[in-house]
Amino acid sequence: MSLHIGDTAPNFTIATTQGEIDFHKWSGDSWVFFFSHPADFTPVCTTEMGKTARLSKEFASRNVKPLGLSTDTVAEHMKWIADVNDTQNADLQFPIVADADLVVSKTYDMIHPGESKTEAVRSVFIIDPNKKIRLMLTYPMNVGRNFDEILRVIDALQLADKYRVATPADWRPGDKVIIPPSIKNAEAEDIFPQGWDEIRPYLRFTEVK
Ligand code: BEZ
Questions:
Q1: Over the stretch 74-96, which tens digit does the pLDDT of each residue have?
Q2: pLDDT band at residue 209 under the 50/70/90 scheme
Q3: Exactly one of 45, 67, 81, 90 is catalytic; which is it?
Q4: Most buried pick, 56, 72, 127, 193, via CB within 10 A?
């Protein structure tokens, strides 16, 4: 099955380092940063797990729950977490899915056979509280992800939902945002009483706080 932005994130029940979870129940009213890894005890993955753990306050302040996955067992994950904490100055508290049978990895298309038939590539799914997939990223096994970008895109998605705006290239929190073309000027006057700069009729920048 191929998944797309806007699809409902498929539910699953599976063993994790924090016990069995029903994904939809576990995520509750939170956003989810669901990210896969090729294997435990591998160097790039270890740095990514440590980074996610160190960013726990950043995720929590955005109402985001991290959920890791690799295609190993709970017992292996538990030993690996001790290593992650030892080597990455971290205290890893989020669950890691034990997908040794590849059930979730296959459902989420995380196995790319040209890379490996048994290990997941580095996929990211940002899933909103309505269980909709809002962003998908795929990195190869040998390139660690950019966590500034992961937080930035979560900020952009949450801002877009709150203010009905879009964000320009390289947007950072506090920068001007874009009024989407679907909102015509007459409606924009109600939604954005602060006004906007019209560079072109289709390119309008405004500020939101
Ligand atoms: C790593 O996490 O370091 C890694 C895993 C699989 C292939 C290459 C690198």
A1: 999 999 999 999 999 999 999 99
A2: confident
A3: 45
A4: 127
Amino acid at 182: S
Q: Is 64 a catalytic residue?
A: no
**How many CB atoms sit inside 10 A of residue 149's CB?**
11
CA of residue 42 to ligand 1 center, whole Å: 5
Count the Cβ atoms, other than its own, within 10 Å of residue 154: 21
Residues in contact with 159: Cβ distance below 8 Å, sequence separation at least 6, in sequence order:
165, 167, 173, 177, 208
Q: Which CATH number fits domain 13-146: 3.40.640.10, 3.40.1080.10, 3.40.30.10, 1.10.340.30?
A: 3.40.30.10
Name the segment(s) of the chain with CATH classification 3.30.1020.10: 164-206
In this predicted structure, what is the pLDDT of residue 15?
98
Each residue of 17-73: pLDDT tens digit? 999 999 999 999 999 999 999 999 999 999 999 999 999 999 999 999 999 999 999
**Burial state string for 84-115 with b = 16 or more CB within 10 A and e = fewer than 16:** beeebebebebbbbbbbeeebbeebebbeeee
Q: Looking at ligand 1, which residue's alpha carbon is closest to its atom 1?
A: 44
Tell me the one-letter amino acid at 128: D
How many angstroms is it from 135 CA to the middle of ligand 1?
23
